[in-house]
Structures are given as structure tokens and as C-alpha cells.
Specification:
The complex is a heterotetramer. By secondary structure, chain A is an all-alpha fold. Chain A is built from 11 helices and 2 strands, in the order ααααββααααααα. Chain D has a two-stranded antiparallel ribbon. The chains are: A mainly alpha, B alpha/beta, C alpha/beta, D mainly alpha. Chains A and C meet through α1, β2 and α10 of A and α2, β8, α7 and α8 of C.
């Protein structure tokens, strides 16, 4: 039983890594702009498609394709911030509804362009197997957990030690005060948006080779990522990390004792129960715009 | 029996004590000014008294009745009305609709009150079309429509230009003369509050520091120290 | 050279001639978008190939008149309301004499009700929900084997091999749940091991793989389509799990092999409505034509749909008129030898095509294990 | 006055449709579906449009009503009308109970918690094979039994049932909105804290509108599965809930006619255009974004503006 629990925890970490990758981008944007972009999942999917495109059509190098898709998604993110989210600043309902519109438009645009079938992205370099104890894991699995942990560490360092990072933190904490001390909050806005969508692209590019590239690939990570940031406390970066991992691990562990067709429900029920106990999430920060 | 009394109120936000053993009682109607430096706990006191925030400790009584922890709507029904520091009106409702929403007073009263503050010409306009100062007037006028017994105004003069300033002062005085009730007014503008209030309460670090007639409070060295310190 | 030119001219001529011919619009309901779009593509491939062949052969005659067939396809997006609308439109606007297709059982049920309203035969080629043909709807026919039929063949085979307890990784949709429930009914609760459901769109099966490894299952059945199937097998094998694998008809093809490799597939068995490489004349010609047109190995869904359209045309010919009730009667009495085998509808409108069990060999080919009379070695399946 | 004449003309037209479209059953079919999509949208409009509660699980409550009625009709042999009432009550009860949890949260928390409950309810419909018949759907849902000679088999007859349901929903909306109840809802959307300070028990009103909205969703759900004669989880997915939001927003959130216009555009237009499915949803997605940016009152707002321009 103990090994089973350990193994499932590891599986949960893996699934949770993907949720965290999605959640981090969303939570950064939420913190700074108070925008919850439901289209973050489809942007992850677009990142994977672009990575696939660059990898198979443009360059044979996975790394180059990954970097290109990150750059492309950052630009897309900045464009969306300008065109959609900035004009709707301060209007929670409209932002969410606009992002639902983006989901429909982007997802079906991808289907129209690439077709509904899944694409395979085989990256030979990442197809090796890594033994961990008696178990074996694909390198890409380990890579995803590793990269996610590296990104988390990097993001924390970035927020703490760089000028932009400090500006992002300041703007998240108190936009008015940030403006008063001369932080160009509008620039912080679009830069954060680009950074967030770039993170989504990274997530898509990372899970593409392990799984497949298909139009709905971002849906489940987005919903679970949302649950994760809610659980962790909206706007809290450490909260998003912890929340995403909790959802992933809960799901994996639940398969040991509960019927698996209710796996999603278990994850959501845990989210609702935790929220009922800690209405602002585990790392609850003050919720702005509450009324 | 006090009209309104708070006993030993305490409320912490994270590490900060917004209220720390605040005692205050008002025996009879009057215009009371509530002043104090930023962070003294004035708005938190309002929030506790109007049921927006639950205190960590202490009691709130109205006419001797313990109303601690009552939700805002119940306190409103018990005769407590308030205005907000950030000025709240229903932007899509017209001025008249704003006044009539949940009002105890009839429409004729609403129109009379609008006239008193020179807003009658906007009666049919949505509140969003008013200037900030006008919206502030509308908000304060609206609080009277509930025929409250206790009225808490949170920085009524903030952001109001001098012309409206006087209208506001006159309006409050008129209303008090018509029907004396308990006015508790948080205000940073000393000129405004000193002219209006019969008694001033000074708060500092979540508790009452001084209480007395305006001139006496102004002369108090402790108050001076609190403001400067 | 001249002969080629001549052939081209003849083709052009025949095309021009064909254009002048009357056309019969046949209704198609399928998923061009939505969660079932990927298998929907195979369905359309089958219909298109049949359409092309019928028309290239000069069409078919009904009541002494020659017709070409024309497909009128509507997207039902795995949504019952869209299915009912499409059916209504086909019945009353396009006034087609017969409708084929659909992938989703719930949508098919909505379409079947409309078909009955207008006495318009509806021929299903993919949905497997057994209760569809239990509603007493005389205008509903199903070419493909339903879940009970598929699992009956497989359950018999699995029981004989002693591959129980049987664990599952299954789509949490009508196909996956239907398969698990069917097996549970046939094998008995005690023979069922771990059941891991996942939602359409989920791709990480590691939690299920771990649980199967920890359990005592002798075999794992993968109830899903090609795309998740390839991922599941990869994840099972990469985790070092050597358990016997049992797949669905989506997993016994060369295309599937391309997604994986022979080493990971070796030994896996799957049921199949249609073994593309079987040494049967009709299968061979179909598979060749399919490969020529679409550049890949034929898919079972395509074969079922291909047969469906051919069958519908045969029924129209037999009925002698383009009228729903007459076509229904013709369908009910028809016996048709198609790519997937002999199709003959029972009183409920359900056909009983053979169900095959094939197994992957070490060299990436398949052998046929079941039914006994068609048993054949590597390269046949 | 002009408005009343227009409304009367519209009502007459709606009633006369079966006679006008006798030779075009497909038109009737599309109009019926429009009604069936408009009914839950009315419920969501009360929640989202008037009260500002963005529920992302609305159609799951339609599913609760639909499956309640389906089980009662097929397994317990109840008549359609009794089952309809039970379905509506079931949805309302589910709305009240789940709403009580969801409404403890605000803004984004509320949206995501409703989304979570929508997915949980969907799981139950999909997984509870013994009762809901699971993912393959629940076929054989009956149409209402004939009333005397009047059977609900023919489309033109069912049309009146769907229209009746829609009119009932719009009437409920109209009564709610023009009452003091409706004033409170609109006040809550604009500024909940202010409304509370004016003596409004926000939780009570929001729970009430959540239950009412869910009841209307249930009404739509029961009629929907009776019309299609099958209940399937596919009709009550997250995507369908998002479509309901789309209908409300495109039609005009917080307007009386919004849900009707939205449903007409969402159901009717694509049936006639029948352009490739992907592009149609791309267009709807873009339209949704543009409407939130430039026409927050949706089509109803645009039409009202046009009407004023014509009259001026």
C-alpha cells in the first residue's frame, strides 16, 4: 500500500506539474491585472501546435521550436492584452465572457487549420526511459517535473531579484501605490501578459511530445489549473504551485480508493471543501474587487 | 441606556490591529465627529457597527440590545444607515430610483431632499452621469430615505468641491434640525467637521484617545501628539 | 501514350455523361467537429469511397432509371439536438430517401426518433449502444456490431485464454462505459479487475497504470480510440508492465503501428470488425482502394460506413422506388456480403457481422485468432 | 403604445407560425429548438444579466430536471405533466442547495465553483448507469400524452408546447424584473454592499434567483429531452453551459428580449447558414468578444438603439 501511495504521489506530481504550468501563467496575469483568462488553456494548445509546426516544418531542433513557440505566444498574449483585456479592465464579468469567446474562436480556428485529429510529435532525444528505484519513467515525464520545478524556482527568483519582477509584485500588491511610486503599470500589464502566455506555450511544447497535440489538449489542464489557483488563493504564486500539485496528487491518490469515473469530481469536491474552510484559499491574499 | 455603544471592540487584519479595545457610547442624538490619523480604525469601527465586518472581540449595542455580528441588512432594518468612504450609489439607477430603493420615506420626500441639494433636475438621470461630488450628495441624501436612527457618514466631504461642500453642510444641519438623530461622521477635513459637530471623538491605534467639544479637542496635547507622531 | 489519352478522354466523357444523370441525395449524419471529429473523419472516408465507386461504375438503377449517388452530409457534433435538426432537415428539406452514419449513441437515439416520425430509414454505421435497437423502431438499422456483440466475441475469447481478472482503461463515454458494462455482464463481476476511466481529452494514464501494476489483473483491456490508445500502450509498456493487452478495433492497423512500434505492440490482441489484410477478396480490394485514395491503411469505421452506403444503394435498387417505407422493407429482407462480412438485419434492425480477434506479431503484422474458421497467421489481420 | 402593438403583432405571428409554415416542418423544428434553448437562457439571464451571477454550470441544472422527469416518466410511469412539475421542482431544489454553497463565494470564485458543480453533476449523469442509463443516453423519453384529440406528436403541436414554455419563462422573467424583487436583483448586480447597507439580505435574494434560474433551466431541460425523445449527458456539458452564456450575452444580458434574440441567432442562424462548423464557432467566438467590447447590451441593445434612431 505504501509503495502504491508513493507511486501515485509521483504520478500526481507529474499531472500536477502541468496544472502548475498553466496555473502560474494565469495567476501572474490575475495578480497584476485582475484578469482571469479562461482562454489560457487554448493558448497552451496553440503553443503546442506552433511548437509542432516549427519542429516539423521549420527546424528539426526541438529546443529551437520550443523557443520559437514561446516567443510567438508571448506576442499573441501581448496582442490579446492590448485588444481585448485592457479595454475591459475592471470589468470582471466581461473579461471572463470575452475569454470564453476567445476559447471558442481559437479552438475552432485551430481545428479549421489543422483538422480535428491529433498530431504526433516524436522527439527522439526525449524518448529514453529513466529508472527510479524499481520503476521506470519516460525521460519526458521527468523532464516535465524537472522543468516545472526549475520554472517555479526561476519565477520566484525573477519576481524577487529583477526589476520587472519587483514591479510585477508591487503592481499585484497595490496597483495604485505602484503607480504612485512611478512603476509604469501599463507596461507591467502587457509584459506580464506576454510572460504568462509564454509560460502556457512552454507547457504546451513540453507535454506535446509526451502526449499528443490536439485541439482539446488545453481544456483539462486549464480547468484543473483554475481549481489549483483557487485552492491556493487567487493571485498568490506559491498558492498556485501548491494548489496545482494538490489537485494533481488528490486525483492520482483518489484512484486507489474511489471509482475512477468520479476522479474529476473528487478533485473539485476537495477544492470546494477547502474553499469552504478557507474561503480565500490556502495562501489567501486579500481578494480585490470583492464587491 | 445608550443609543449606540461599543464595548471593547477588537479586530485584527493579518498582523495589524485595526481596533484594539475600543469603547464608545452615545447617549443621545447629536452630530458627532470621529477623527484620527490614518489607520486609527475609524472605517473599521464603521464596518463593525454596520455589520460588514465581524469583530474578533467586544460587543455592539443599540438601545442596549446586543447586535454584535448582525449582518448589514439586519442592522439596516434596525435603523442604522451609512455612507461609504469610496462613495457608493447604484450607477444605472436614476437619482430618484436610487433614493426610492428600499426607502421608508415616500417619493415626495425624495423629491424634496433632491431639491435641498439642488439635484432635482437630475432626478430622472442615471447616477453614473453625475459628477463625483454630486454622487456623494446623492449617496448621503439616500441614507435619509431609510429614516434611520443612527447615521454613519464616512468622509462625506472627501473629493467634494467647495461649492457642494457648503450645500452638504447646510443639508446635514437642516436634516438634523428637522429630526435629531445620532450622526457619526468620520472626516479628515477639520474645517468641515469642527463647524458641524457638537462633540469630537479622536481615535488612535484602534481605541478612543480623546473625546470632547471641538475646541477642547483641538487644544489637547495628546491629540496633537497622535497626529504628529 | 495514346491509350492513356484515350482513357482520359473516356473518363472525361463518362464524367460529363454522369453529370447529366439524375442524382439521389443520400443523407449523412456525422461528426465533422466536436469531440468525435477524429473518428468522424474515418466514417466520411468510407462513405466517400463508396460514393466514388458507385458513381464510377455508372450509378445504380431504381425502377428502371439510372441514378448517381450524392452525399448530403451534416455535422451533428456529438450533440443530440444537432442530430435531431440534421435529421429533420434531411427528411423535410432535402427529402432524402435514406440516411446513414452517426458515431454517438445518444445522438443516434435522437435521430432515430425523427427517422421514425418520417418513416425514413436510418442506417447506423458506428454507434454501439445496445439499447438503440431495443426501442421498437422499425426504421432504425445498424450495420456494425453493438457493444454486446463485440464483447460477447471477445469475452468468449478472453475466458478461453484465462485472461482474468481483466482490468480496464476506458473512455468515460458511451463506447468505453458500454464496453466495461458489457464485459462485466458477460464475464461476471468476479472476473473484473481494476477499472480506470478517463475523460475524452485526457492523455495521462499513469495513475491507472500504477494501479494495474499493483493489482492482480492478467490482462488489461483498452477501451478507447486510436489516439489515446497509442498513448495508453506507450505508458503501459514504458512503465515496464508486461501484462497482456486487449484493444479495440481502432488498434489493429498499420496506421496504429506507425504511432508506436512493433516491440510495444507484440502480443496484444484486439477485436476487430474488419481485419484490413485478411485474405478475403472483398477486403483486399477495399483495402487497396482505400490506401490509394487516402494514402493509409483502411480503418474499421470506414469499412462499416462503406458497406453501409453500398447496402443502402442495394436496398434502393431492390425497393424499386425512392421511398422510405419501401426501402425499409427492402433493407429488412436484404442479405448483403460486404467488406465487414455478411450483413443481414434481425427483427430489431441489428446486423450480426463477424467479430474478429487479431493479435500483433513480433514483426508488426497481425494474425487472426478468432473466429476459428478464419484463423490465419501473421500478415493476415 | 407602439411597443404594445409590436408585441401583439409578434404574439400573433408566433401563434400563426404553424399555419404559415405548414409545408415547412423544418422551420418549425428550428423554432422549437430556439424556444428550448431560450428557456434555460431566460433563467441564466435572470442570474447573469440581472443579478450579475456568472454561472458556468447552468445547463447541468437543466440536466437535473431532464433526468428527474425522464426517470419518473419511463421508470415510474408518471404522466408528462406531473414529471414536468417534478423536474422543475427538482432543478429548483438542486439550484437552491448547490446555490447555497456557490453563493458563499464571489466573483471568480463563484464562477469556478459553479463550473465545478456543473462538471460534478455532469459526472453523475454520465456515470450513474443504473438510473440515467449513462453515457450512451436515455432513449425512449415520451412526448406528453394527447389531451383529448390533441397529440404532441406532430411538430406543429409540439411547437405550441415549446412556445408555451418559452412564453411562461419570459412571463416569469417579466414579472420578476418589474417587481421589487427584480429591482433588488439589479441593485445587487450594481453594488451588493450598498444594497446590503440599505437592508437587502443579499444571500436570500441571490439564493432565490439561483433557484428560480435553475427551475427555468429545468423547464427547458424537460421539454428538450421530451422533444428529442432522448436524454444524453452530451446535452448538459460544460460546453453547453458556455453556450448558454453565449446566448445570453449575444442576445443582450439584462434585457427582457435578450435570451430570445440570442437563441434565435445561436440556433436559427447556423441552421440556415450551415457553413462549415468550425468557422461558425470561430465567428460566434469573435462575436462574443466584440459584443463584450463594443455592445455590452448585446443584440437587444443594438436593436433598441436602431429603433430609437428610426423613431427620431
Amino acid at each position: 500500500m505504501l509503495t502504491a501511495v508513493l507511486e501515485q504521489t509521483l504520478n500526481g506530481l507529474m499531472a500536477g506539474s502541468i496544472y502548475v504550468l498553466v496555473a502560474l501563467g494565469m495567476v501572474l496575469i490575475y495578480g497584476v491585472m485582475h484578469v482571469l483568462n479562461f482562454a489560457h488553456g487554448v493558448l497552451l494548445m496553440v503553443g503546442a501546435y506552433l511548437c509542432h509546426f516549427f519542429f516539423t516544418r521549420l527546424t528539426g531542433s526541438y529546443l529551437a521550436a520550443l523557443l520559437l513557440s514561446i516567443a510567438a505566444l508571448a506576442l499573441i498574449g501581448i496582442a490579446l492584452e492590448r485588444a481585448v483585456f485592457r479595454p475591459l479592465q475592471g470589468n470582471l464579468r466581461s473579461q471572463v465572457i470575452a475569454s470564453l469567446g476567445l476559447i471558442l474562436a481559437i479552438e475552432h480556428l485551430v481545428i479549421a487549420l489543422w483538422g480535428p485529429n491529433a498530431l504526433q510529435m516524436r522527439v527522439p532525444a526525449t524518448e529514453a526511459l529513466v529508472p527510479i528505484g524499481a520503476l521506470r519513467f519516460p525521460l519526458q515525464h521527468v523532464l516535465i517535473i524537472g522543468v516545472t520545478l526549475a520554472i517555479i524556482a526561476g519565477l520566484f527568483a525573477f519576481l524577487k531579484y529583477t526589476k520587472l519582477g519587483t514591479a510585477i509584485r508591487a503592481t499585484s500588491e497595490d496597483r495604485q501605490a505602484a503607480m504612485v511610486v512611478g512603476i509604469p503599470v501599463e507596461r507591467v500589464d502587457w509584459m506580464t501578459f506576454g510572460l504568462g502566455t509564454a509560460l502556457a506555450a512552454l507547457g504546451g511544447a513540453l507535454i506535446g511530445p509526451l502526449f499528443l497535440v490536439f485541439p482539446q489538449m488545453g481544456d483539462a489542464p486549464m480547468v484543473k489549473g483554475l481549481a489549483g489557483i483557487l485552492l491556493g488563493g487567487m493571485g498568490s504564486v506559491p498558492g498556485a504551485v501548491v494548489g496545482g500539485f494538490i489537485i494533481g496528487i488528490t486525483e492520482a491518490l483518489s484512484t486507489l480508493v474511489l471509482p475512477t469515473d468520479y476522479r474529476d469530481s473528487v478533485a473539485f469536491a476537495v477544492m470546494v471543501l477547502i474553499l469552504l474552510a478557507w474561503p480565500r484559499g490556502l495562501f489567501g491574499v486579500r481578494v480585490r474587487g470583492e464587491d | 441606556m445608550s443609543l449606540l455603544a461599543v464595548e471593547g471592540l477588537a479586530k485584527r487584519y493579518g498582523g495589524v490591529a485595526a481596533l484594539a479595545g475600543c469603547h464608545l457610547a452615545f447617549e443621545r442624538p447629536g452630530v458627532y465627529g470621529l477623527i484620527g490619523p490614518n489607520g486609527a480604525g475609524k472605517t473599521t469601527l464603521f464596518d463593525v457597527v454596520t455589520g460588514i465586518v465581524e469583530p474578533d472581540a467586544g460587543r455592539v449595542r443599540i438601545d442596549g440590545r446586543d447586535v454584535t455580528g448582525w449582518p448589514a441588512y439586519r442592522l439596516a432594518a434596525a435603523g442604522v444607515a451609512r455612507s461609504f468612504q469610496e462613495c457608493r450609489v447604484f450607477p444605472e439607477f436614476t437619482c430618484l430610483e436610487n433614493l426610492l430603493f428600499r426607502a421608508r420615506a415616500p417619493e415626495s420626500e425624495a423629491r424634496r431632499l433632491l431639491r435641498l441639494v439642488n439635484l432635482e433636475k437630475y432626478a430622472g438621470e442615471p447616477a453614473a452621469s453625475l459628477s463625483f461630488g454630486e454622487r456623494r450628495l446623492l449617496e448621503i441624501v439616500g441614507t435619509f430615505m431609510a429614516r434611520p436612527r443612527i447615521l454613519l457618514l464616512d468622509e462625506p466631504a472627501a473629493g467634494v468641491n467647495p461649492a457642494l461642500f457648503e450645500v452638504l453642510q447646510r443639508f446635514i444641519r437642516t436634516m438634523y434640525d428637522e429630526r435629531p438623530l445620532l450622526f457619526l461622521i468620520v472626516e479628515h477635513n477639520m474645517e468641515f467637521i469642527m463647524a458641524l459637530a457638537s462633540e469630537i471623538v479622536v481615535m488612535h491605534q484602534g481605541a478612543v484617545l480623546e473625546r470632547g467639544a471641538p475646541h477642547a479637542v483641538q487644544a489637547s496635547p495628546r491629540v496633537l501628539e497622535a497626529y504628529l507622531g | 501514350m495514346p491509350s492513356k489519352l484515350l482513357a482520359a478522354a473516356a473518363l472525361a466523357l463518362s464524367a460529363a455523361f454522369a453529370w447529366a444523370q439524375d442524382r439521389v441525395a443520400v443523407g449523412i449524419v456525422t461528426s465533422l467537429s466536436g469531440p468525435m471529429a477524429a473518428p468522424g473523419k474515418f466514417q466520411m472516408n468510407g462513405f466517400r469511397l463508396a460514393e466514388e465507386e458507385i458513381n464510377a461504375a455508372g450509378g445504380f438503377s431504381v425502377g428502371g432509371r439510372k441514378y448517381l449517388v450524392e452525399l448530403k452530409a451534416y455535422d451533428t457534433r456529438a450533440n443530440p439536438a444537432e442530430g435531431a435538426s440534421a435529421m429533420q432537415r434531411l427528411a423535410t428539406v432535402d427529402k432524402v430517401p435514406v440516411v446513414l452514419g452517426e458515431l454517438h449513441s445518444g445522438v443516434a437515439a435522437a435521430e432515430a426518433a425523427v427517422a421514425q416520425d418520417y418513416q425514413l430509414p436510418l442506417i447506423l454505421t458506428i454507434p454501439t449502444g445496445p439499447n438503440l435497437t431495443e426501442q421498437g423502431n422499425r426504421f432504425l438499422f445498424r450495420v456494425n456490431a453493438n457493444n454486446d456483440q463485440l464483447t460477447r466475441a471477445l469475452a468468449e475469447f478472453i475466458a478461453r485464454q484465462g485472461w482474468t481478472p481483466l482490468a480496464f482503461i476506458a473512455w468515460n463515454n458511451d463506447a468505453g462505459r458500454g464496453g466495461v458494462n458489457g464485459m462485466r455482464k458477460l464475464l461476471g463481476e468476479g472476473k473484473i479487475g481494476y477499472v480506470g476511466y478517463f475523460n475524452v481529452g485526457e492523455v495521462d494514464f499513469s495513475a491507472h497504470v500504477s494501479n494495474i501494476r499493483a493489482g492482480d489483473a492478467r490482462a488489461v483491456m483498452l477501451l478507447m480510440d486510436e489516439e489515446p490508445g497509442s498513448l495508453a500502450i506507450k505508458q503501459v509498456r514504458d512503465a515496464g508492465l508486461k501484462t497482456q493487452l486487449v484493444g479495440t478495433l481502432a488498434m489493429g492497423s498499420d496506421r496504429f503501428l506507425k504511432r508506436l512500434d512493433a516491440a510495444r505492440l507484440e502480443g496484444m490482441v484486439q477485436y476487430n470488425a474488419f481485419p484490413p489484410n485478411a485474405d478475403v477478396g472483398s477486403i483486399r480490394t477495399f483495402s487497396e482502394r482505400y490506401r490509394k485514395k487516402y494514402g493509409e491503411e483502411a480503418h474499421g469505421f470506414a469499412a462499416q460506413s462503406y458497406d453501409g452506403l453500398k447496402l443502402a444503394v442495394a436496398a434502393m435498387q431492390k425497393a424499386g422506388k425512392l421511398e422510405g417505407r419501401a426501402i425499409r422493407e427492402a433493407l429488412a429482407g436484404l442479405q448483403y456480403d460486404g467488406v465487414i462480412g455478411r450483413i443481414k438485419f434481425d427483427a430489431k434492425g441489428q446486423a450480426h457481422p463477424p467479430v474478429y480477434v487479431t493479435q500483433w506479431c513480433a514483426d508488426g503484422k497481425r494474425r487472426i485468432l478468432y473466429p476459428e474458421n478464419l484463423k490465419a497467421d501473421c500478415g493476415a489481420g | 403604445m407602439a411597443g404594445r402593438i409590436a408585441a401583439a403583432a409578434l404574439a400573433a405571428l408566433l401563434l400563426a407560425v404553424p399555419a404559415l409554415a405548414a409545408q415547412q416542418p423544418y422551420v418549425l423544428h428550428v423554432l422549437i429548438l430556439t424556444c428550448l434553448y431560450a428557456i434555460p437562457a431566460v433563467g441564466l439571464n435572470l442570474m447573469l444579466g440581472y443579478t450579475g451571477l456568472v454561472s458556468l454550470g447552468h445547463m447541468a441544472f437543466a440536466g437535473v430536471g431532464a433526468y428527474t422527469a425522464a426517470v419518473l416518466m419511463v421508470d415510474a410511469g408518471w404522466s408528462f405533466w406531473l414529471a414536468l412539475a417534478a423536474g422543475v421542482l427538482g432543478s429548483a431544489a438542486a439550484g437552491a442547495a448547490i446555490g447555497a454553497v456557490c453563493l458563499r463565494f464571489r466573483t471568480h470564485f463563484f464562477m469556478i465553483v459553479t463550473l465545478a458543480f456543473g462538471l460534478m453533476l455532469y459526472s453523475v449523469m454520465n456515470n450513474w448507469d443504473d438510473v440515467t442509463r449513462g453515457a450512451a443516453g436515455f432513449p425512449g423519453i415520451p412526448r406528453p400524452a394527447p389531451i383529448g384529440e390533441w397529440s404532441f406528436g406532430p411538430l406543429s403541436h409540439f411547437y405550441y408546447l415549446a412556445l408555451g414554455g418559452a412564453l411562461a419563462a419570459f412571463a416569469a422573467q417579466w414579472l420578476a424584473v418589474r417587481s421589487s424583487f427584480g429591482r433588488v436583483l439589479v441593485a445587487l448586480r450594481q453594488d451588493e454592499r450598498l444594497a446590503q447597507a440599505k437592508g437587502v439580505n443579499g444571500m436570500l435574494y441571490k439564493s432565490a434567483v439561483f433557484a428560480l434560474g435553475s427551475a427555468l433551466a429545468g423547464l427547458g431541460g424537460v421539454l428538450h429531452v421530451s422533444f428529442l425523445r432522448v436524454a444524453a449527458p452530451a446535452s448538459f456539458t460544460l460546453a453547453e453551459s458556455i453556450n448558454a452564456v453565449l446566448i445570453v450575452i449575444v442576445g443582450g444580458a439584462g434585457t427582457l428580449a435578450g435570451p430570445a434574440l440570442g437563441a434565435l441567432v445561436f440556433v436559427g442562424l447556423p441552421e440556415y447558414l450551415r457553413i462549415a462548423a468550425e468557422w461558425r464557432l470561430v465567428l460566434f467566438g469573435v462575436a462574443l468578444v466584440l459584443i463584450t467590447l463594443f455592445a455590452p447590451q448585446g443584440l437587444a441593445g443594438l436593436l433598441a438603439r436602431a429603433w430609437r434612431a428610426v423613431r427620431a
